[in-house]
Amino acid sequence: MDKIKVLKIVLCVSLAFLVTALLVFAVVTAVSSKDDNSRKEGKTSEKQEDIKTADNPEKENAKTDDKDKKDEVENPKKDDNDDIKAGDPTETPTEKPEEPDNNEITITPAVPDNIVTPIAPDNKDNVVTPAVPDNKDDLVVTNVPTEPLKPDDKDKDIPISEIEGVESENGGILYRSPHGNGKLVCIDPGHQTKGNYKEEPVAPGSSETKPKVSSGTSGVSTKLPEYKLNLTVSMQLKDELLSRGYDVVMTRIINDVDITNIERAMVANNNNADVFIRVHANSDDRSSTKGILTISPTSSNRYVSGIYNECYLLSQCVLNCMENSTGSTGGIIWKTDTMSGINWSEVPVTIVEMGYMSNPDEDRKLSDPDYQKKLVKGMADGIDDFFVKKQ
Question: Does 49 map to a domain?
């Protein structure tokens, strides 16, 4: 009897436990089903929202623009490129800036990554300036073309002073006039920076010798070296002759050279010059000596006997015209056979001694640009006169 009761109690407890388990299972199942339904509804809502957004992009942009405008009002941005202007820093602009069209699409061009912006030096002292020689004598002519240029019509518009010389294959620097008259003048600016005192024959086949070239004299008042004066005036004479239609060949265009007197004569000979003008300045032990002097060979000079008459005529024409141009008086033609630059010449030649650097007054005149122009005009007039009288 007691066993039956115990059995009934066990069955009741088991039944109660089973019912409880079933109830718990039912509750858990119901909760899980509800969560799944909620997630499905959320996904469906998002899909629908995406579809609405795709169908109405303008409405979405409008919402975004409205939000941006609100942010700009609350937190206005400062333009980095705006300049700071004088006045009240708290002053508010009275004009409302123009609102951009919300529908307008602005395209910002892409900037290449490889663009390099030059960096300006912070200090002007860091800028490197090409070095310029302190002394013009240090200037060296380089990259000079070797073929002479023939003038054409366009060259006639080039200023005479800008005509460039070319290195002649026969020696010297050759300049072509844009108004060519068919005549070639060789100009030899006498002397050079440093003399070459080695000996050379005074004439072809002569046993007598003399220094190849000296550096010349200098101004008693100006202290100007003769070789500098000679080159300055010779370059002006070159431009004057070019303007008159003469082609010109220069034995030198800088001071720091080493060209002997024989080599200078060879420049005139090899280029077949029509006349050879050697530009010098004079000196004397007496400071009162002054005036222009030209030098010609003598009639008995066997080395230049074939051109003696032309040499003398050239010396005479140049002296007369220089005195007329400058107002100088008392000039003479000195005939001598001691000048190697004359004895080696095969073309009509004269040496022009422009004045005495040993005379204080004349020395200062020789350095005067206005007086130099008169000297140049006189020499050019003398060359013109020579060709007229030679005919």
Answer: no
pLDDT of residue 28: 73
What digits encode the pLDDT tens for the residues 140-187? 333 344 444 444 444 566 899 899 999 999 999 999 999 999 999 999
68: left (phi over 0), alpha (psi -120 to 50) or beta: alpha
Is 145 a member of any domain? no
pLDDT at residue 121 greater than cutoff 70: no
Threshold 0.85, pTM exceeds: no
Torsion of CA 283, 287, 292, 294, to 10 degrees: -40
Residue 117 included in any domain: no
Q: In whole angstroms, how far apart are CA 352 and each of 19, 137, 222?
A: 145, 23, 20
Edge-first strand order for the sheet with 349-356 is 166-167, 173-175, 247-250, 184-189, 275-282, 349-356, 293-296, 332-335
CA 185, CA 187: separation in Å to the nearest integer?
6
Contact between 360 and 287 (Cβ < 8 Å):
yes
CATH code at 307? 3.40.630.40
Range of the domain at 340: 184-390
- Residue 219's SS3 state is coil
**CB-based contacts of 298: which residues, under 8 Å, 6+ apart?**
308, 335, 336, 337
- Grouping H, G, I as helix, E, B as strand and the rest as coil, residue 254 is coil
Alpha-carbon 384 to chain mean position: 38
